[in-house]
Amino acid sequence: FFPISIFICYVRVDEYDRAIIFRLGRVRKHARGPGLVWHLPCIDSYRLVDLRTRVEVIPSQDAITKDSVTISIDAVLFYCIQDSMHATIQIANVHESTMFIAQTTLRNMVGSMTLHELLVSRQLLSQRITIAVDHATEKWGVKIERVELKDISLPESLERSLASEAEALRDARAKIISAEGELSASMALKEASDVMAQNKISLQLRHLQVLTSIAQERNLKILYPFPLEMLRPFENS
């Protein structure tokens, strides 16, 4: 059966896989693949390692922030295996271990930040978790591409408190803006009154302008009394 049995000694390895060959229990140097890989069926054993990027949903983690607020965080982990040899011989289950280290790192990072920092700088928290998990899994041949936070859930009572606080801040800001507007208007009126005090004709012109605007807005006809001062030059004649 020699011409036929020779084909049993070959194994096909896909482009995204690498084969780790063990000969009598000892690992052979370098990963094999892609393509056809030679091995001896009775002496060698092999294990395929997938090099593609994996996406894992980190289960909801209950954590306590630095200011003693209990929250729940959901996240997504993106990682891939760069060194298939280390991922096979350094750890028993590289995928499960990567998930566990990501969960514990997420809880530790949340505990070192206040609630305000978490809500404001979510991107910074994601970067810090990515760096920490990547450093921990580097010896396993795992590359952490990114960790993204999906959602931060707050207790219902805390959500109501934050909403009330935000509403109070908006009301206070609106009152401040209104007061600043009234201050600016009063200063403008003071300057206008100073100008009118220097010239009495300007006060009459302003009066006529107000009457004109009222007539245009309400479609009215306003009868303005004829000033008697205009007839004084004709009294002597």
TrEMBL record:
Domain of life: Eukaryota
Record localization: Membrane
InterPro entries in the cross-refs: Band-7_stomatin-like (IPR043202), Band_7 (IPR001107), Band_7/SPFH_dom_sf (IPR036013), Band_7/stomatin-like_CS (IPR018080), Stomatin_HflK_fam (IPR001972)
Gene3D superfamilies: 6.10.250.2090, Band 7 domain
SMART domains cross-referenced by the UniProt entry: PHB
Keywords of the record: Membrane
SUPFAM superfamilies in the record: Band 7/SPFH domain (SSF117892)
Family recorded in the similarity comment: Belongs to the band 7/mec-2 family.
Keyword Magnesium included in the entry's annotation: no
Signal peptide: none
Official protein name in the record: Band 7 domain-containing protein
GO cellular component terms listed in the entry, alphabetical order: cytoplasmic side of plasma membrane
Taxonomic source organism: Drosophila rubida
Pfam families xref list: Band_7
Domain Band, chain residue ranges per copy: 8-166
